[in-house]
Every structure is written in structure tokens, then in C-alpha cells.
Amino acid sequence: MELKGIHHVSAITANAKNNYQFYTEILGMRLVKKSVNQDDACMYHLFYADEIGNPGTDLTFFEIVRAGHTYEGNNSISLTSLRVSDDDALVYWKKRLEQYGVDHDEIKQQFGRSILHFRDPEGQRLALVSDQTNNGVKAGVPWAKSPVPTAKGITGLGPVKLTVPDPSPTVKVITDVLGFRYVDSYPSPLVGQPEMEVYETGEGGTGAEVHIEHRTDIPKERPGRGSVHHVAFRVNDEEELAAWHDKVKKARMPNSGLVDRYYFQSLYFREPNGILFELATDGPGFATDEDVEHLGEKLALPPFLEDKRMQIEANLTRLDTNCN
């Protein structure tokens, strides 16, 4: 068995309307599913992705209206990166972020690639990474109706960064249990800090990497709006997910058991530094209950929540996505 790469990253927003405007109108991603948190149906769960929500392209958000400020720190998923086609696309994006007043850094080189760090209005730590030199997991396809030109559009999720006080137990889980391979290391952008270590799975490349940052100079992160809840890795199908479940149990790691998310099947567990991992199947996908042309326009509920639709809708603030 081998994980195929990153499946999705789920984060926290305190304002679904503003979140929707930023990720669709400025970043040009497509809202492929407007649903609710299946474990707490009083909050939105929004899925932004490529043209049809291909696995490996989903950045999702739970709306927690009263979410406070994030105090950045250890034991966290401290960076989510988004893939673009090449270095020229990053030049376009730097100008676009400036045009919309988005907080950003300069384009720089990191691990042999061009990268542009920026923050969304709630402080979500993001980066655009160029696929110019990438040889690995295939990228997605930007939505043709995006306000961003297709050639410059976001094509999927890039590497995620984990910040931990002791990398050894995290590394043991991702290599011995999940089968990631050590690739190389590169200098930390912070003076005096250990090098960042890179691990990959599947075909490797930007869509299948985890970067581990070792920090002993900061406290544990206090999550809130603008923080990441979990990262999910790609599993081919339900049969393989069941085998992964057996492997995680044999490693004596407490886990959720198999969970039906309707659009995919999942397994959740925490690694020793407290970071939540999910393994998720590639299918059946977001077109299961909506036509591809109209993804994300209406509130979509899995069958096991459909009988509660009126109650769920009454507890949600209206979010108009019909122009998606």
C-alpha cells in the first residue's frame, strides 16, 4: 500500500461569507461543495478546489462563528501551500495580491522551487508554489469560469508544513506507519533553527510532500480562525482504506474507525505531537449529488442528514453562492 499524496486540508474560518468571497473572487478557486460539518451540522463546511474537486485540490473550511484569534506555535499544521503551473504564474500572483491588498512576502526560492507566502484576511498561513520543476503527482485543472486566467490558476494543494517541538515521533509515524520517504532537507528561513526535513509519498513532488519544522523556542499553538484543523492523505478506495485501518490499529494508535463522509470514506487519528491526520478515499467525489455544472450552488447534505434539512438551514446564516 502507498498513499497517493495530499487529499485535502481543512481549516477554520469565523465568517463563511467573507471566506467565500476571498477564495473564489481573489484566489479564483471554485466552491465545489457547500455543506455542513457532519459532526456538528450547525456550521458550514465549504470546499474550494479545481474544476470538479479532484482529489488533491480541496482546501476546506469549517465556519466557527465565535472562533477567536490564532496564537501561532508548535504542534500545528503551520502552512498550507497551493500549486500553480510555473514561475511566471507567481509573478502574476504577486501583482494580483498587491492589487487586492493581500498581505504577502516576496517571491523566493525554497527547496529548489519558487514560492510566494501570503496570508488570507483571517491570518491563514498560505503559500503559492511553482510547479515549474515539479515531477510528481499530477496537478488538477483550474476552473474555466474563474476570474483568474486558466494558465495562472491554482491547480491543487502543495506541501503542508508541520511544526513540532520533537520531530522524532512524528517522523516515525509518517515513515513507519504511513510509508512516507525521506527526500532531503533545506535551511530554515529562521536564523539558528534546525533544517526543514522533507518527506514524500506516492509519485512524490509538490502534491505529495510533508515538510517538518523543528521548533523548541515557541509554545504550543492555540488554534482559532485562520488555523488548520487537519490534513488528509489520499487512499485509492474503500478496500485499501480498510487495510490502512488495520495497519493503524496494529500500530496501537487510537483512531476514529472507518467514517462515511458520503463524498469519500475516511479514517482519523492523531500523531504523537497531536496533529490530526485523515486518510480519505479518492471517490466517489463531489458530483455524487450535484451536476458538475452546478457544484456548490445549493446546500448539499449527505443522505443521513437530509431529514434534518429544515432544522439545519434554520441554524445557518444565508450564504448566496448561486453565482458560483
From TrEMBL:
<feature type="domain" description="VOC">
    <location>
        <begin position="156"/>
        <end position="282"/>
    </location>
</feature>
<dbReference type="GO" id="GO:0051213">
    <property type="term" value="F:dioxygenase activity"/>
</dbReference>
<dbReference type="InterPro" id="IPR029068">
    <property type="entry name" value="Glyas_Bleomycin-R_OHBP_Dase"/>
</dbReference>
<protein>
    <submittedName>
        <fullName>Ring-cleaving dioxygenase</fullName>
    </submittedName>
</protein>
<dbReference type="InterPro" id="IPR052537">
    <property type="entry name" value="Extradiol_RC_dioxygenase"/>
</dbReference>
<dbReference type="InterPro" id="IPR037523">
    <property type="entry name" value="VOC_core"/>
</dbReference>
<dbReference type="Pfam" id="PF00903">
    <property type="entry name" value="Glyoxalase"/>
</dbReference>
<keyword id="KW-0223">Dioxygenase</keyword>
<dbReference type="InterPro" id="IPR004360">
    <property type="entry name" value="Glyas_Fos-R_dOase_dom"/>
</dbReference>
<keyword id="KW-0560">Oxidoreductase</keyword>
<feature type="domain" description="VOC">
    <location>
        <begin position="5"/>
        <end position="131"/>
    </location>
</feature>
